[in-house]
Structure formats: C-alpha cells, structure tokens
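User: I've been trying to design a sequence by hand for this structure and keep getting stuck. Would you show me what you'd pick, starting by listing the structure so we're on the same page?

Assistant: Good idea, let's start from the same input. This is the structure you sent:
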C-alpha cells in the first residue's frame, strides 16, 4: 500500500510541476506579446510606407503629408512602448520565470491558441466578429486552484509581493504635432534597448537582477494575434483610466454604482458589505465600488489585464503621469490625422488617493474554479457583473456559482450584452459554447433561486473611439436580482 501511495504522490508532484511549467510558458508568451509590440507596430508602419511608395507620382502629391504622418506614428509607438516597458519593469511574476519549461513539449494550455481575442465589435484576421478580450485571452495560466493571487490588504492590486519601484519620469505637455520631442528622446532610449528588454529608472540605473525573466533568451516568438491583444489593452486603459473614457463609464458603471448605493444605504466602517466583481478587467469598477464603502474584490482571468491593472493601481504616483496613443493602430474611419494621433493622459485619478475601503483586492484566476471553493459559499452580499456573463463556455455554470456564493437576500447586479465569446470558434471541435437567448437566461436565473427586482435596457459602447466614424452600440441588459432565502424557497 505504501508503494502505491508513493507512486500516487510522485504522479501528483509530476503533474503539479507540469502545470506550473505550462503556466510559466504561458506567462512568458504574454510578456513576449507586450515586448513584441514595438517591432510588430513598426512592421505596420513599414507596410503603410510600401503601399504609399506604389502610388503614381500624381497621387503621391495629393498625400504629400503621409511621410511625416508615418514618422509621427513611430513617435507615438515609441511612447506606448515606453509605458509598456515601465509596466513590465514593475511586474513581479508570481512564478519562477527562469525555470525550464522543456517538459511542456511546446504546448500551451487549451486556451492558448484562442484567436478570437480582440475588442468587442471588431474583426479578427479571419474577418469574424470578435468579442472583447477580457477573460478570453490566450495563454493565461490556469493552475489547479485557478487562483493567481488574492490580496486582502491595503495594497491595491496583484501581483502578490509587488513593490513600489522607481520609474522614469514623464512630461505630459503637448507640442504642435501631438508628440513631446523631449520625452520622445527618453522613450526612444528605452525602445532601442528592446533587444535587452530593459528600461532604466529615473536615476539611470539599469533593471535589476530580479527582472532576469525579461532576458531576450527567455522570450518566445508569438503570433501577431497576441500583439493585437496588447493593442486592445491600450484601448481598455482609456475606458477605465482616462478622462476620455468618462462617458462610457457613466453609461456602464454609473447605473451599477447608483444601484449599490441605493440597496446598501447603511454602510458601516466596522462591517462594510462585501461585493465581488468577476471580469474586473483593469480594475476601475472594483475600485469605484470600494470607494463607495464596500469591501470590494475584483476577479480577472486575463494576465494581460492583471499586469496592466497592477501597474496602474499600485505604481502610478500622480494624475496624468503617463501618455499613450490608443487610436494609432487603425487607419479606418478617422475624421483627421490629428484625431487618430491624439494623446491620452492616464490615469485620470490617483488610485491610492481615491478613498478605497480597507480590504480592496484583485484576485486572478478562472471565476468558476476560484469561487467554486467551499469557503466562498454564502460569503458575498453583492455580485456585480459588467460585460462578463457572455465570456462563459457555459453561462449556466456562471449563474450557478453566483447563486452559491451570494448570501441569502444578497443581490446580483448585471449589465452587458450576450456576445458569446466562444460562439464562433471554428475548427476547434472540443471548444464548448452554450448560447441561450436572454429569455432563456432569465428562466435559468429564476431556477437558481433569484427574484427580479429591476430590469431595463442600457445603451452603451465598449472601448469605442469617440471621434471615430464608426460607433458600435449595445443595448445591454441591466438587472438587479435578489437571492431568495431558504425559507422563501420552501414556501414556494
């Protein structure tokens, strides 16, 4: 018997090591996607230049400003890259990134090849309409626990152990062409170090040995679709952390915040109500809920999102500290070059000074895996889902878990469409996707012990460029459900 137990323990150890190696390889792939952003973006500009060079002279003369625009694009790319490299410098991986991953045989987790990852309302390389990236990104680790980290402290966001590291200062003044030349020189130094993937801090010191995992020898060649996810993250930053995203936040977040404020009028500092935000993305909604006086926990599956939210929540030191150019990667539907190349300052608030309630945290991992744990049963006073429930392979599973983790009498507030993320996974026969109508979804919700308190439709956009000639709009379902108590279930 002891020999069988030893074999079982050995197999479990081997499986755990394999899973961890897969997680490391997946995280390397995501970091590589971020690091490949400058090179992939430069290839785009070169493609624009080749097309322009093929024009006859008379046609070139009509677009004589294009060469200057291409150089401006390069400076914008440099600024975005500068932000990305500083973000990666601040990231503290929860795993040993230098470990050998040869045991993976070149494989990734099943979702590592998800080529559907892009912003809602845009199309991927195959021309298929894509869903938004949160919770559908490729290559994120899925551990046996499903949990990347969970913080229950005054530290604002994952990863666990992240510290406030110095960063190069930025100057946010604008110049005539929308790019600051002085800042560009500093950014270019960082971008030119791309072969070493190393940014300098404000004292001119090179990156420390703790970031050896950024060594180019450990980087992977990633498909361009992975870099597209980085571009989506840059646009998501505008939605959550820029003044320009305020309109979308008022459309999506304000109804939720007003409903929470109304439903929990007596929020006491000694015992604040607890609210969970699955699919928290870059963390703004979870932070706003915390500022209302709730113990708030955001849950996010995407490491692309988690790396970025950690940087903004934990490492930004002032309002408008960083400048990004979120709209440069699309030449379509632009009213003018100045619209396409306009800068956006982030963040619009200083997260650490926003007035969060103690206990605010971000938890990384698959929603079902993390919150199916017995310790979560009946733990939460409220669950808030915003543009989330359609990210499920099986939406019934999401509803079941939400019902289990809510206290009796707890509330579920939802806002979002039903753009099922795995609905068009052509060529992947084992990719399950259950896609009920809204009518069916509401019947399922009632089955799991909820009663409708409020329901309406909210018109909104998602990561939309407000100055674009194309505006994708959603007529999102907004509802408040209350979980019936056990005695109410018995009487019915």
């Amino acid at each position: 018997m002891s020999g069988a137990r030893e074999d079982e323990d050995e197999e479990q150890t081997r499986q755990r090591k394999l899973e961890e190696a897969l997680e490391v390889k997946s995280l390397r792939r995501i970091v590589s996607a971020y690091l490949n952003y400058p090179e992939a973006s430069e290839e785009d500009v070169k493609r624009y230049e080749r097309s322009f060079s093929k024009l006859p002279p008379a046609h070139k003369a009509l677009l004589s400003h294009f060469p200057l625009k291409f150089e401006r694009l390069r400076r914008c790319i440099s600024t975005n890259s500068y932000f990305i490299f500083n973000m990666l410098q601040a990231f503290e991986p929860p795993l040993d990134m230098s470990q050998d991953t040869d045991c993976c045989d070149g494989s990734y987790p099943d979702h590592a090849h998800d080529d559907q990852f892009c912003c809602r309302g845009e199309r991927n390389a195959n021309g298929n309409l894509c869903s938004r990236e949160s919770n559908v990104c490729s290559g994120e680790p899925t551990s046996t626990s499903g949990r990347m980290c969970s913080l229950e402290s005054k530290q604002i966001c994952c990863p666990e152990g992240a510290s406030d590291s110095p960063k190069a200062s930025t100057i946010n003044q604008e110049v005539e062409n929308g790019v600051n030349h002085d800042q560009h020189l500093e950014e270019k130094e960082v971008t030119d170090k791309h072969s070493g993937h190393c940014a300098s801090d404000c004292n001119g010191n090179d990156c420390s040995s703790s970031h050896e995992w950024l060594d180019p020898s450990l980087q992977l060649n990633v498909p361009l679709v992975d870099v597209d996810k980085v571009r989506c993250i840059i646009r998501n930053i505008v939605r959550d952390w820029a003044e320009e995203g305020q309109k979308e936040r008022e459309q999506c977040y304000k109804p939720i915040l007003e409903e929470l404020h109304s439903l929990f009028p007596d929020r006491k500092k000694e015992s604040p109500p607890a609210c969970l935000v699955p699919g928290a993305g870059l963390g703004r909604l979870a932070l706003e809920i915390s500022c209302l006086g709730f113990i708030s926990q955001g849950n996010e599956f995407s490491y692309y999102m988690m790396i970025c939210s950690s940087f903004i929540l934990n490492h930004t030191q002032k309002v408008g500290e960083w400048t990004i150019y979120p709209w440069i990667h699309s030449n379509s539907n632009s009213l003018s070059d100045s619209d396409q190349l306009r800068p956006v300052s982030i963040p619009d608030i200083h997260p650490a000074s926003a007035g969060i309630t103690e206990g605010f945290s971000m938890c990384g991992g698959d929603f079902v895996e993390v919150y199916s744990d017995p310790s979560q049963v009946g733990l939460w006073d409220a669950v808030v889902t915003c543009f989330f429930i359609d990210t499920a392979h099986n939406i019934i599973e999401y509803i079941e878990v939400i019902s289990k983790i809510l206290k009796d009498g707890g509330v579920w507030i939802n806002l979002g469409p039903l753009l099922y993320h795995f609905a068009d996974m052509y060529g992947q026969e084992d990719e399950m996707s259950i896609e009920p109508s809204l009518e069916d979804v509401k019947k399922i919700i009632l089955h799991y012990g909820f009663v409708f308190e409020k329901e309406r439709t909210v018109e909104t956009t998602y990561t939309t460029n407000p100055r674009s000639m194309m505006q994708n709009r959603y007529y999102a379902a907004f509802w408040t459900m209350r979980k019936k108590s056990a005695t109410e279930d018995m009487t019915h």
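That's my pick for every position. To get oriented when you compare it with your attempt: The two ends are 51 Å apart (CA to CA). The domain at 227-483 is CATH 3.40.50.150 (Rossmann fold).
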